[in-house]
Amino acid sequence: MTPSPVWHPFTQHGLGEPIPLVARAQGAALYTDDGRRIIDAISSWWVTTHGHGHPRIMAAIAEQSDTLDQVIFAGWTHEPAETLARGLTAIMPPALTRVFFSDSGSTSVEVALKMALGYWLNRGEPRDRILVLEHSYHGDTIGAMSVGARGVFNAAYSPLLFDVGTIPFPAEDRDRHTLDSLEAACRDRPAAFIVEPLILGAGGMLIYSPYLLAEMRSICARYDVLFIADEIMTGWGRTGTLLACEQAGIVPDILCLSKGLTGGAVPLAVTMASEAIFAAHWSTDRARMFFHSSSYTANPIACAAANANLAIWRDEPVIERVTTLAGKQRERLDTLAALPRVRNARSLGTITAFELDDPAGDYLSDLGTTLRARYAANDLLLRPLGNTIYVMPPYCVDDDDLDRIYAGIAETAE
Ligand code: PMP
Fold first, then answer.
1. Do 39 and 185 fall within a single domain?
2. How many angstroms is it from 113 CA to the middle of ligand 1?
3. Which domain CATH number covers 372?
4. Which domain holds residue 109?
5. In this predicted model, what pLDDT tens digit does every residue of 350-360 receive, in sequence order?
6. Model pTM score
7. What is the arrangement of strands in the sheet containing 22-26, beginning at the earlier edge strand?
8. Best residue for ligand 1 mutational test, from 47, 110, 137, 153 (most atoms within 8 Å of Cβ)
9. Beta strand residue intervals within 284-407, DSSP E
10. Of the four, 102, 174, 241, 413, which is 20 to 30 A from 360 by CA?
């Protein structure tokens, strides 16, 4: 066969690492064309919540594709989007009254940033500075990269990235420093502060307390700085509650959701906003409208999948499943934590993580690549972030698969 023309994401083709061909997926497992059963221990990059091929989501996609595949969403609407927007406003915090659709997590972040700037401009007080938390990740488009940590991932594009105010991450006992820095930065009247609530994902599964999240939110409220919660990874039960923000008892001004919005089956994102943000764009003047759209905004098939996801949340004991899974993961993590090379074992909801002792540990060190290959050889899909190893399985994963995941990790941590 001629070599594949596919250019894969976050893949150095020059290393010649094997790229398995996945033929189908069910529950917590992927099946390759050569007959292997691989446990999807990272929910296919954090998207698959209930499990692959959930029958209700698959049926909704099939049914929707019989009636309406795609229609322009600027000035037109359709039932799946209307139902979804109502469903979201019913399940999400009541203060988030408006739902703007897009296609990916990164796009929902771009939309959030544009809404924030539009809000201030339309109120006649233009503001453009964005505050971010150190080590954050919000996506790979230019705006989303700008509000994320700088590093080897985006060094080539740095001339295009806009300047932001970085608030230090609250490493151990540094809550006060973080809060003081945020307060000082808020005095300069920035437009918004964007955060990953409770856990920074791609930055290394770094966890901070609900107390700190609540304090950060209240500082922003006090200084009239918009608070954007990026719940793209944390939403839909990942951290033990529907939203991570719930654990801090807070509601953001703008909320970004994607990944588990469709149960992880098809791409879709939303940016939910408070009425004040919508109202700032509401006018008879076209120049004040929200200038954002993409071809597939609110694709009906994706909306139908998301409606099925909402129905699952309404009808099935998802939070109980998540709580049970969290407990099972913690037990297994406790066993791992006793191994000599395991550092800083931690967990939040369905996510566990630790650092594997490795003096050279950074994202580009060979360790991550070597580990990934060893896990794959054991039929495990795990993708360490440098020397940070984490597990984030679909909620349907069973005990045997969990045992296999943690046994496979233990082999590499002795
Ligand atoms: N924000 C967070 C917190 C994420 O984890 C991700 C994706 N891992 C994104 C934004 C970007 O989402 P997408 O890859 O769908 O563009």
1. no
2. 15
3. 3.90.1150.10
4. 58-315
5. 999 999 997 66
6. 0.97
7. 22-26, 29-32, 37-40, 380-381
8. 137
9. 342-348, 351-356, 380-381, 388-391
10. 174
